[in-house]
């Protein structure tokens, strides 16, 4: 009798594979254990067992496995079920999901490159003979492939040994460029609460004899009176020309207390525990409503305006779920996963919070994986970006998706191209866990589900502290240019408002969205931007062909010589970036500290956190940035937000442009006027009467929702139609053209629904490959699964056409 194990390989192959095992192995193997297996002529992979059986494969001779790598399953059955759902819904292979789900340190294979871990002192005595051989080899060679290790040790089964060396921090995977993620906290000093009365203060001053300590204390009072803001330890020491040991003595004596500014911002009374956190009346009401809804519905949307204290409500809910012993997953868009938020939650939940961040190195990710696997209290709450949903939860009780509208939840490359918000609701269902989606500006899809009563809704339209939402001032750029009231890209109004804010010692955020590759063509006289007659998008200027094109239906016209609206010949291509704004600011406000935040300035190790810290610590007066600024940041001294050009966003060629513009503008506006003062937002635009701009001005989310929903229906977009985009790429122009035409024709014949394309995207050549796209719009009324099956069949028949075999195909379900 033969024994077999069925495994998933971490490859884009659409099936499972059968390997031969001994009877002992057969009895030992459990689904979810990793197994090193040979594949092809000389490759080795880390496969995942999904079942054992006694049916030999019919199409090939089963090879023997190399070795079982785990003593216990590291992946559970709910995960496997979830992976299957992802593979089927997002039309990719289960192997691709497996590869994406596990930290790469779990997936050693013959081609994996290892090298000595930098900066680690290795005690050679702790190494076994084989381990030492590898260590020694790496002294002479900066890196080795796993295959090389196989020959050095002259044995096949090297993965467990390598895993040990990784655990011992002797070697690391070469692909790792990650830095470990350490929140930077700035130390601040305040007077101990024992001395809150004048009387006690006098006693204190009389009681301190040491001259140096007295000087420091007096210096503190002086600073306290003049600065009226938090005093950092460094500032105090500098100011009094003292040193840290003197300060330390005063802290030991409980004269001073130290604290960290990142942990507390608006008010400086720390909330130490979620239990002590008191919700405002309306927050409490919202929380009660959520819990109430959860008795009948599994998914609830918390629609709460910016600064309403959604995080506080989440915290309470997390705390209550913790008491049931269940696990909690808190998903955030990558960029919002700041030290700011992490420390806020750590403050409530201490060491029960694990963070799963792409900035984490492999060891750290493996560690969190294992903690979750063992259902360790250290990881009862997991905060993470989208990939955290792949962790091996066994008893998930609650999932929170904050800023659920963020497009960042969708993975673009490589497969699986999943949307974490949607995929995690399926996972939650498997666990019978509740899902809370939170946003000040919910996605159309989510709000549509609320309207259809699929999701419950809880609204919170009051900011914490009752500060009103900011006042929005619209500046008509057309008019301002005409009256020569512009200085570069700044209107008189914006300059005045900036000046006022800075004079009061307040900070300013300026927003310039520079998204988009090819700029738009715009009329300088009337602001008109040519639109596609068939679609709800603006045309994009293609410099190379001197054309205006629609990215959705392929419609194109030659670049006009004059404006179709007002006949002006004053046409210009549009697009100015943050860099230009930064330069202009330097001339306008030469004595102020200006900081730019965009992809270029946040590239470094902790670039993003550094800038946030600097701004938070008030070392920067004006922060200029791209949409990065919109992501749930909470600053306590920003009174003014300026949006330099709202039209950039509005006319981005995307069916979601208006929705996204609304979200973006409402979110950046939300950064203005937090604590006790109403903020201001200045929006510069050529189209002050544009519906979306008006909706932002009046905080009219429902108006935006209704209007956009109507448009989506008319133009056949989500949530009424599901979109699937197929991208074809090849080095030869003719081959892409021909093959995409073939695919388009077959799909149109087979599917009774709109199939658009094949379209040449705006960036029609990347890395010497030509690109064409086809978009399929699947109406609500037809079976999604059935349609996907048909599409898959067509794709399979495409694959067997020999002259098209080299064409690369990418399928993106729910793209955008
Ligand atoms: P949102 O996420 O809804 O934009 P936040 O959760 O960031 O709002 O809250 C805004 C500010 O108000 C934060 O500084 C937060 O600490 C403070 N805050 C909100 N609710 C409370 C509360 N119940 N107690 C103390 N501070 C609160
Ligand atoms: Zn015009
Ligand atoms: Zn079009």
Automatic annotation (TrEMBL):
It comes from Flavobacterium piscinae. Zn(2+) 2 binds at residues 532, 535, 550, 553. It catalyses: ATP + H2O = ADP + phosphate + H(+); Couples ATP hydrolysis with the unwinding of duplex DNA by translocating in the 3'-5' direction. Component of the replication restart primosome. The keyword Metal-binding applies. Signal peptide: none annotated. GO terms for cellular component: primosome complex. PROSITE patterns: HELICASE_ATP_BIND_1, HELICASE_CTER. Zn(2+) 1 binds at residues 523, 526, 563, 566. This is Replication restart protein PriA. Pfam families: DEAD, Helicase_C, PriA_3primeBD, PriA_C, Zn_ribbon_PriA. Binds 2 zinc ions per subunit. Its cofactor is Zn(2+). Residues 291-460 form the Helicase ATP-binding domain. Keywords: ATP-binding, DNA replication, DNA-binding, Helicase, Hydrolase, Isomerase, Metal-binding, Nucleotide-binding, Primosome, Zinc. Belongs to the helicase family. PriA subfamily. It comes from the Bacteria. Its EC number is 5.6.2.4. Initiates the restart of stalled replication forks, which reloads the replicative helicase on sites other than the origin of replication. Recognizes and binds to abandoned replication forks and remodels them to uncover a helicase loading site. Promotes assembly of the primosome at these replication forks. Gene3D superfamilies: P-loop containing nucleotide triphosphate hydrolases, PriA, 3(prime) DNA-binding domain. One of its GO terms (molecular function) is ATP binding. Residues 536-713 form the Helicase C-terminal domain. GO terms for biological process: DNA recombination; DNA replication initiation; DNA replication, synthesis of primer; double-strand break repair.
